[in-house]
Amino acid sequence: MTGLDLAAVIADPTIKIIICCGSGGVGKTTTSAALAVRAAESGRRVVVLTIDPARRLAQSLGVEQLDNTPRPVSGIDTAAGGSLDAMMLDMKRTFDEVVADHATPDKAEAIFANPFYQALSTSFSGTQEYMAMEKLGQLSAQADEDGRWDLIVVDTPPSRSALDFLDAPEHLARLLDGKFLRLLLSPAKGPFRLMGVGFTLVYSAMEKVLGAQVITDVKTFAAAFETLFGGFRARAQDTLALLGSQRTTFVVVATPEPDALREASFFVDRLTESGLPLSGLVVNRTHGSELEISAERALALAEDLQTASRGKRQSGHRVEIAALQRHADRMRLIERERRLLARFSGSRPDVATWSVPDQPGDVTDLEALRLLGSALVDQH
User: Fold this and answer.
1) For the chain, how long is the longest CA-to-CA vector?
2) Which among 246, 253, 250 has a CA at the least distance from the CA of 376?
3) Euclidean distance between CA atoms 254 and 309, whole angstroms
4) Distance separating alpha carbons of residues 378 and 380, to the nearest angstrom
5) Quick one: which of 12, 94, 284, 303 has the most CB atoms within 10 Å?
6) Distance separating alpha carbons of residues 55 and 132, to the nearest angstrom
7) Helix (H/G/I), strand (E/B), else coil: 348
8) How far apart are CA 10 and CA 216, in angstroms?
9) ∠ CA 29-33-37 to the nearest 5 degrees?
């Protein structure tokens, strides 16, 4: 097992995108924010994008509200020439921007008013992940064009859906460019005309199940959206190519718990199978002790003190006994964490890993983010 050198990652000018992924409740959002703050105060021009709908990122950065527009974070030390902007993905607004940018005004207006589009842009499975890809592509293009940023930090949604954005472009493109919509759009053209009466029967059955208005809405949407089909797939392929390039790196975040490390293993394996660049694994909230006393020895000492106190009305060793028992509990926890991390490293020895000690209190402001950034970067 090698140590993960995040100082080198954020200092590398060739790395333009850092994507943090992991299951829920492992400190992924605060890790993303801490890396962004550290990079900005080290001289990078950073924008941090959260796809997680929770608003913890805004709270920890001291920003009143985050939305789909990058906004500067105040309180950042800019002495090294860096800066920090922050934003939170608004999938409907991003979808609207894509339509407005790539359709004529008349077609855009028709798409916006269509009930099927309204459902697709707000609640359809995979839309959030696809729009995350669109937004990441937009930010990268803007960074290349005007140099406003030289590093994009992405905080992904919790759980395994954090990597769904790798598949979402293909899923959505398959829907928008699929035979079903083409069939609704032009049922009498091409090979579909061969279906004849069979298609008519299927179509009638669909109308009964879904309702004639739903089918009409989908057909109207398909007609207005037809010219945009190819663009979605092309941009998704460009962004996937960007994710697989040397400009991007992934950081998996976990805690020393069985479920979190199991999810981390899934992320690591998926990234490796997809040929995507992985920097390594950050393990948050690990524990240590300055006392070199094993749990067994601490309990034995506590038992000796209890034996010495028997028969006395008041024990002069209550504090010492309680302290030794708490120390024994902590040492058991430390040993458990070590076993879990050793098991992970044993099955994936090539994955660089870095353990971050449990932080005192919640990470809710810039100073706490700086302390977390130091724990992530400075202990090499």
Assistant:
1) 98
2) 253
3) 44
4) 6
5) 284
6) 17
7) coil
8) 51
9) 170
Domains in the chain, start-ordered, CATH in brackets? 6-178+230-287+358-377 (3.40.50.300), 295-337 (no CATH)
SS3 153: strand
What type of residue sits at position 354? W
Residue 149: Cβ within 10 Å count: 23
19 with 162: CB under 8 angstroms? no
Residue with tokens 């209190």: 361
- From the number of C-beta atoms within 10 Å of its C-beta (0-12, 13-18, 19+), residue 324 rates as buried
Could you tell me the pLDDT band of residue 265, with boundaries at 50, 70 and 90? very high
**E strands present in 277-375:** 278-286, 353-357
The pairing of strands 83-88 and 71-72 is antiparallel
Residue appearing with tokens 């609704």: 184
| pLDDT tens readout for residues 198-215 | 434 444 544 444 455 666
Q: Are 16 and 348 contacting, i.e. CB atoms less than 8 angstroms apart?
A: no
Q: How far is CA 336 from the centre of its chain?
A: 27
Q: Check if the beta carbon of residue 117 is closer than 8 Å to that of residue 111.
A: yes
Q: In 3-state terms, what secondary structure has residue 137?
A: helix
Q: Give me the residue label for tokens 């998926």.
A: 270
Quickly tell me which residue has 């394996």 as its tokens. Answer: 269
Q: What is the DSSP letter of 159?
A: S
Instruction: Report the pLDDT averaged over residues 178-193.
Output: 50
Nearest-angstrom CA–CA distance, 289 and 235: 50
Q: How far apart are CA 208 and CA 206, in angstroms?
A: 5
Supply 258's token pair: 């069985």
196: phi then psi, degrees, rounded to nearest 5 = 50, -125
Spatial distance between the Cα atoms of 375 and 378, rounded to a whole number of angstroms: 6
357 strand-pairing partners: 286
Report how far Cα 209 is from the mean position of its chain's Cα atoms: 37
Instruction: Tell me the per-residue pLDDT of 279-304, one tens digit each, with 9 for 90 and over.
Output: 999 999 999 988 889 999 989 998 88
pTM for the structure as a whole: 0.85
